[in-house]
Amino acid sequence: MVNRARWGKSERCPKQSQVGYKCKLARKLLVSLMRSTAANKTSVKLDILHERRKRNLVHQLKKMSHKEILTTVETCLDILEVSLEEPYQGQRRLLRVESSQEEAESRIYKVKSLVDRLTNDTKDSVQHLHEVMAELMSKVTMLIRTLNAGGNNTRVTSPQSFRAPEPHCYRGARDAKDLKNFLFDIEHE
Fold first, then answer.
1. How far is CA 79 from the centre of its chain?
2. For the chain, which terminal residue's Cβ has fewer other Cβ atoms within 10 angstroms, N or C?
């Protein structure tokens, strides 16, 4: 009654402290049981559904003739065969997908190896071109040094230093034989 005076409510249970603890424990156990039963409800519902179907099928079979039962069983077998074939079709599709995946992986591996080989070939070609360029640069540098050290050695000799043969044996004579001999001597000097 102390609680009533304080809050204006009557006590439900005179031994509330002991009962409250037990109630909380019971509530926790009940909540966990409710959760597990909620998870099991679907499996229980499926079991109940299968049992109902069996009972209905047995009840219907009792009303049917032998021919009707035979056709019904054949229909059920056909449906069962089709439903059993579906996983095999899925398995075949899965095998095809796996084989195409393996083929794609092998192609990827081939492409990677080709890219690696081409990369190495390109690196080798670039290295060779660098070596050739370094060699040519050294030759050009050597030519520039030679030209700078030699001064103006590239000039053509002046026409004053050219010495033409003098026609001393011709001496103004107009004999054709002497002229031919003179020209022959100039050509063979």
1. 43
2. C
Q: Based on the domain organization, do 98 and 44 belong to the same domain?
A: no
Q: How far apart are CA 145 and CA 18, in angstroms?
A: 112
CA distances from 109 to 76, 97, 118, 130, 174 (A): 50, 18, 14, 31, 94
- pLDDT reported for residue 57: 73
Under 8 Å CB-to-CB from 69, ≥6 apart: which residues? 61
For the chain, helix (H) and strand (E) counts, in that order, are 4, 0
Helix axes 66-150, 16-63, angle to 10 degrees: 110
Task: Please provide the average confidence, as pLDDT, over all residues in the chain.
Answer: 75
Q: Do 169 and 178 form a contact (C-beta atoms < 8 A)?
A: yes
- Asked whether residue 9 is assigned to any structural domain, the reply reads yes
Asked if residue 83 and residue 47 are part of one domain, the reply reads no
| Three-state secondary-structure class, residue 147 | helix
Total tally of structural domains belonging to the chain: 2
Residue 133 vs residues 92, 119, 129, 140: alpha-carbon distances, Å = 61, 21, 6, 10
Parent domain of 47: 1-63
> Within this chain, do residues 71 and 58 fall inside the same structural domain, yes or no?
no
Q: Which pLDDT does position 88 carry in this prediction?
A: 78
pTM of the model: 0.34
CA 118, distance to chain mean position in Å, is 18
